[in-house]
Amino acid sequence: MNKHFVVIALLLLALGTHAQTPDSCRRLTVTDCIDLALQNNLELQNTQLEIEKARATKGEARTAYLPTVSAQALAFNAANPFLTFGIDDIDNALVRQTLYNLYAQYGPLLGLQKEYSFVQDGVIANVMATEPLYAGGRIRNGNKLARLGIEAAQLQKDIKEDEIRLQTECLYWQIVSLQEKIVTLDQLDRLLDTLDKDLRGAIEAGLAMPTDQYKVTIKKNESQLNRKKAEDGITLLKMALGQYIGVDWQALALTDTLGLEQAPTAYFQAAHDAVAGRHEARLLHLSVEAERLKKKMTLGEALPSLLIGGSANYHTLLDHAKPNAVAFALLQVPITDWHKTAFRLKKHNLDLEIAENSRRDFEEKMELQTNQAWFNLQQSWLRITMAQTALSDAEANLKMVTDYYEAGLVALSDLLEAQTLLQHSRDELSDSRVDYRLNIVKYKQLTNNRQNP
Fold first, then answer.
1. Which residues span the domain enclosing 94?
2. How many Å apart are CA 132 and CA 68, to the nearest integer?
3. Treating both helix axes as pointing N-terminal to C-terminal, what angle do 30-40 and 210-245 enclose, rounded to 10 degrees?
């Protein structure tokens, strides 16, 4: 009784698990996958942290505009006074002797001492505030450089987002392509099963040779192997996609299909205009501007600087001490640094020239890259049109060869070859459409257009 109960429980559990499997699958479009990848990608999260760092750097640079305030307090007690002064400290002998005579006659009566000491203990407190009025442009240029850092960090994030979108779509459409291949294999297997049944009857009736059935068996084995390759490819690609978007690959179900495509002319953009709008081009311009600002900051170190300030202090060093306040202005003029600054400016000029050359070089290469992407898009569109024509021809050819075979006018090998041509034509059309879809994604990213096709 217990054994039967366990068996029934296991069966119910298996059925329950099987029933839950479709519900547990996550049906995702390519847009869903891109959104998940952007949410879960750790490298992209690091780029956001870099933006926050750049903002903190800008906040730090802005504090240079604000006054600098400092406070100091000192309390001390020395073993011996710092200052002592008495009659013996007078160098003039005549004056010293006269004071000795006066001290001997009146000193004890007046309560005077022969020697006095000062500053043996006390308290000193000071508060100072300074405000730079001119620092050779270093504060202003430092803030500009900090703003460039924020923009550069944001551009780096945008570039990383483009990479993630492209990689996600590549994985997604490769899986769709393999799924299309399995659909094609399903159609081929149905044809082969029908042909196998017909051959069995023909062999029993003496109208066909067993070798014909052997040929069909070889073709079915080949189809089974191709199916296994496609299924393994889907599994590996789903693993990669699941890891990339942060989803269990076993629960992935892709819903988008290839659909109809638009002609390449709908996406065309002049290469020069496309390069001008790319994040990478803007990043190159920022690198040149950053070198200019660094040069200005170096020049500012050799220019005069002016600051104003005030100080309030209090001390108990003297018996009649009282608070005091001081206002001041400080002008600093570097004199001996001009020679060193001249060499530093020369280095900055060379760095600026290098940055300009790198910018022009990369812009030319990006323009070439854009043209190449456009050519690839046109070629993949042509490949689709040719594959569609080939598929129509293969379908017509299979129908004709099938009619001839049933009429006994052609051999079985001709029929199998026609089926193979049809399979290859369907695979070629599927591959060409996936290739075209990926080329669209690449081209639209290069032209700074990210709307889905």
1. 83-118
2. 9
3. 40
Residues near 110 by beta carbon (within 8 Å), at least 6 away in sequence: none
Alpha-carbon distance of 409 to 407, in angstroms, equals 6
Cα 418 to Cα 287: distance, rounded to the nearest angstrom: 60
Considering the domain architecture, whether residues 113 and 224 belong to the same structural domain is answered as no
Which helix (H) or strand (E) element contains residue 77? strand 68-77
According to DSSP, residue 63 is labeled G
Q: Do the bridges between strand 121-134 and strand 252-254 make them parallel or antiparallel, or are there none, so unpaired?
A: unpaired
178 within a domain of the structure (yes/no): yes
pLDDT along the chain (453 residues), means of 10: 42 40 69 91 89 91 88 84 70 72 69 67 87 86 91 92 90 89 86 79 69 80 90 93 88 81 87 88 92 89 88 80 85 82 89 92 92 94 93 92 84 85 89 90 80 43
Examine residue 60 and state whether it is found in any structural domain, yes or no: yes
C-alpha pair distances (Å), 184 with each of 79, 191, 262: 101, 11, 24
Q: Is 363 in the same domain as 434?
A: yes
Specify the residue for token string 């002064």: 85
The domain tally of the chain equals 2
Q: Model pTM greater than 0.85?
A: no
As a whole number of Å, the end-to-end CA separation of the chain is 62
Report how far apart, in Å, the C-alpha atoms of 109 and of each of 103, 106, 116, 200 are.
Answer: 9, 5, 17, 148
Beta-sheet pairing, 324-332 with 305-315: antiparallel
Domain presence at residue 280: yes
